[in-house]
Amino acid sequence: MDPNVHISRHPLLLHKLALLRDQGTDPNSFRALVREISRLLFYEATQDLKLAPLTVRTPLAECTAHQISGTIGLIPILRAGLGMAEALLDMVPNACVWHLGLYRDHDTCQPVIYYNKLPSPAHIDLAIVVDPMLATGGSATEAISILKRVGVSRIKFMALIAAPEGVARLQGVHPDVPIHLAALDSHLDARNYIVPGLGDAGDRQFGTM
């Protein structure tokens, strides 16, 4: 496995991932699991965040401490990425949130951009692109290309489940971007759905199946 591809083996994450996959999980529980897994994955993906020294006063004395240095940007790929971004925003409430709307054309399987709220130039120290599923890799690859065009240099990608085809495509175009996953599944089927996967993450979050 490429060292730039990180697949979590955390027991809590794997336990919750099994519940997320289950076809009997209702939309409310599914959304809660997306949030919980996203937070666990975020802990692992941000171990290298830069810190700045800080002095705080406890009830007993002054104490040397640390605070996150630099600006973090969260970029959810609409619509399925929204649940992940909300979970991460709870952990880093001062982060910027930029929205990118892309969908996969079912005839061509290519990404189509329908919404873009990225500033240009973009002044952030780390951008984290989030999408629950990395299937063909088209949307993720295009989102990262857009970020680079507006001046973002440090980017990470987070997904809950990926197919090898999507990982290979993203790595081929953007080998400098670390990929953080909860699971790497078997393959894509004829409709480009991840197998075994969990179905359509957007439909399952928002009850539109």
Q: Radius of gyration from the CA trace?
A: 18 Å
CATH C-level category? Alpha Beta
Named CATH topology: Rossmann fold
What level of helicity do the residues show? 25-40%
Uncertain runs: none
Shape summary? globular
Number of domains: 1
Task: Give the rounded overall mean pLDDT.
Answer: 90
Description:
The protein is of the alpha/beta class. It has one domain: Rossmann fold, CATH 3.40.50.2020. 33% of the residues lie in helices and 30% in strands. The protein has helices at 11-21, 27-45, 82-91, 138-149, 164-173, 201-206; strands at residues 5-7, 51-57, 62-68, 72-78, 96-97, 100-104, 111-116, 126-130, 133-134, 155-162, 179-184, 187-188, 194-195. The strands form three sheets. Strands 1, 4, 5, 6, 7, 8, 9, 10 and 11 form a nine-stranded mixed β-sheet that branches. It has a two-stranded antiparallel ribbon with strand order 2-3. The two termini are 34 Å apart. The mean pLDDT is 90.
Question: What's the gist of this structure?
Answer:
This protein has helices at about 10-20, 25-45, 80-90, 140-150, 165-175, 200-205; strands at about 5, 50-55, 60-70, 70-80, 95, 100-105, 110-115, 125-130, 135, 155-160, 180-185, 185-190, 195. It is α/β, with parallel strands linked by helices and about 210 residues long.
